[in-house]
Amino acid sequence: MEEPGLDKRHRDKNGEISKKHGNTLISTLRQTYGQAFAPGQPDHKKLREILHELDVASLSQLVKGLPPPPYV
After folding, report:
1. HSE-up (13 A, CA, CB side) for residue 53
2. What is the Cα gyration radius of the chain?
3. DSSP code string of 5-67
4. 30 burial class (0-12, 13-18, 19+ CB within 10 angstroms)?
5. Are 33 and 26 within 8 A, CB to CB?
6. Residue 56: phi, psi to the nearest 5?
């Protein structure tokens, strides 16, 4: 059964809503945050790689500088 408000996410065993993992591809994140996400980075790179290269601690910090994704 799908829980309301999860927006196609799932809960971890401890009940927390799952977060993006370091092995998430940039191409996948661009589907969520738009093509402006991580400009200059290739689609095949992983989140943990660009966080390290850009010296950013988390996806949240990386996203804060972006405009909100366009709504259809």
Report:
1. 11
2. 13
3. T-TT--B-TTSPBP---TT-BHHHHHHHH-TTSSTT--TTSBHHHHHHHHT-S-HHHHHTTSP
4. middle
5. no
6. -115, 140
pTM over 0.70, yes/no: no
> Distance between the two ends of the chain, CA-based, in angstroms?
27
Q: Out of 7-16, 32-41, 51-60, pick the least confident.
A: 7-16
Amino acid identity, position 8: K
The token pair at 16 is: 């927390």
